[in-house]
């Protein structure tokens, strides 16, 4: 539980959104001693130093955090080899982490291994040697072998190797990562992770009393996350496909926020024909592939972006913002150049194995 005689939590989040997660963690926990973003340069990870036993902080984060995916009580970070020798290193550091302080012979455990980078061993190899190390240490301390339960263990042991760094701890979140909110009864094929939706809402600096629109709402993730965060937002969800609107409505019912969202079947390239009000914040995840456009050609994507931004700029409030995520960096930048909008924020994240870009836009002065 201590790393160099200090208590640390290891937080996993979406690579590229570590600052958003760090801000939320600080707001939720208040009296943290230190927050380290991307320890050892590892993306998607945050270290949180706390002055007392960390498990109560884990409970707060697991119950309330919206931008993170996993909370681990960190027992150690070590350098390990990328060669086959790395398995020997992992065995030694897992054994030295003294899981006997948390595990009795009557408890079951399971190792959840993960790996990023090039190594001469697999995640399965990591899990095997990690499990052997725990068993051997427990036998030395108690003279008994603990039960291994890979499906429903009493304690989940976290063993994550990224490059030449091995992070070991106790996974307090469990196998259901925090981005799986549980309200999604309709699963849109290009659904945005709720953690990313939350981050985009924060990046756009949404405030109580504003008007929010997602003109490509799909399954409604952005709308639902906003409705759960704010009491007095006026929220509109638009999609050209009626089945998506029906699915988004079902998701909103499941999340308990359907009454806070107005759903409309409509074309995102004709927003000025649909809305006769100024919109404060437009946040969206527009289509970027053939599958999402139901067979239309790829050349339709630039045209869609051009028309959407032209229409959106006409209904955007003078001090309003558009926050958009897409892997089509060149395409969206060309569309922005053709519009009366300018970029005020840009960042790169990794979403579903894709490199994506979040842009925040405002009207040119």
Explain how this protein is built.
- The chain is 32% helix and 30% strand.
- It is an alpha/beta fold and 365 residues long.
- The strands form two sheets. Strands 1, 2, 3, 4, 5, 6, 7, 8 and 9 form a nine-stranded mixed β-sheet that branches.
- The chain is elongated and about 75 Å long.
- The N and C termini lie far apart (53 Å).
- The relative contact order is 0.10.
In terms of topology, how is this protein built?
Blueprint: E1 2-3, E2 6-13, H1 18-29, E3 34-37, E4 45-50, H2 55-64, E5 68-79, H3 85-96, E6 108-116, H4 123-142, E7 147-148, E8 155-162, E9 165-171, H5 194-203, E10 211-214, H6 221-229, E11 234-239, H7 242-255, E12 261-265, H8 271-274, E13 279-284, H9 300-315, E14 316-326, H10 329-338, E15 341-351, E16 354-363
Parallel strand pairs: 6-7, 6-8, 10-11, 10-13, 11-12, 13-14
Antiparallel strand pairs: 1-2, 2-4, 2-5, 3-4, 5-9, 8-9, 14-16, 15-16
Helix pairs in contact: 3-4, 5-6, 6-7, 9-10
């Amino acid at each position: 539980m201590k790393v160099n005689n200090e208590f640390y939590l290891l937080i996993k989040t979406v690579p590229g959104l570590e600052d958003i997660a760090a801000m939320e963690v600080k707001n939720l926990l208040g009296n943290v001693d230190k927050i380290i973003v991307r320890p050892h340069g590892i993306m998607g990870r945050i270290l949180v130093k706390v002055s007392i036993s960390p498990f109560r902080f884990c409970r707060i984060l697991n119950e309330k955090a919206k931008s993170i995916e996993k909370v681990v009580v960190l027992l150690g970070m070590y350098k390990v080899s990328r060669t086959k020798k790395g398995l020997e290193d992992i065995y030694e550091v897992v054994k030295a982490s003294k899981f006997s302080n948390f595990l009795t012979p009557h408890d079951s455990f399971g190792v959840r291994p993960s790996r990023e980078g090039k190594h001469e061993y697999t995640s399965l190899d990591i899990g095997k040697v990690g499990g052997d190390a725990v068993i051997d240490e427990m036998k030395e301390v108690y003279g008994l072998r603990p039960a291994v339960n890979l499906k429903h263990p009493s304690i989940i042991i976290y063993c994550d190797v990224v490059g030449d760094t091995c992070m070991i701890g106790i996974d307090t979140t469990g196998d259901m990562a925090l981005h799986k909110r549980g309200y999604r009864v309709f699963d849109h094929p290009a659904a945005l992770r709720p953690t990313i939706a939350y981050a985009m809402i924060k990046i756009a600096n949404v405030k109580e009393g504003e008007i929010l629109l997602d003109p490509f709402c799909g399954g409604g993730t952005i709308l639902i996350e906003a409705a759960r965060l704010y009491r007095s937002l006026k929220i509109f969800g638009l999609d050209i496909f009626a089945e998506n609107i029906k699915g988004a409505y079902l998701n909103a019912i499941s999340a308990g926020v359907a009454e806070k969202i107005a759903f409309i079947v409509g074309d995102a390239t004709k927003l000025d024909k649909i809305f006769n009000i100024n919109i404060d914040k437009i946040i969206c995840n527009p289509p970027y592939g053939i599958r999402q456009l139901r067979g239309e050609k790829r050349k339709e994507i630039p045209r869609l972006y051009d028309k959407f931004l032209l229409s959106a700029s006409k209904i955007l409030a003078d001090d309003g913002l558009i926050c958009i995520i897409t892997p089509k960096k060149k395409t969206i930048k060309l569309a922005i150049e053709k519009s009366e909008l300018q970029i005020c924020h840009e960042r790169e994240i990794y979403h579903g194995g894709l490199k994506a870009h979040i842009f925040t836009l405002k009207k040119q002065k």
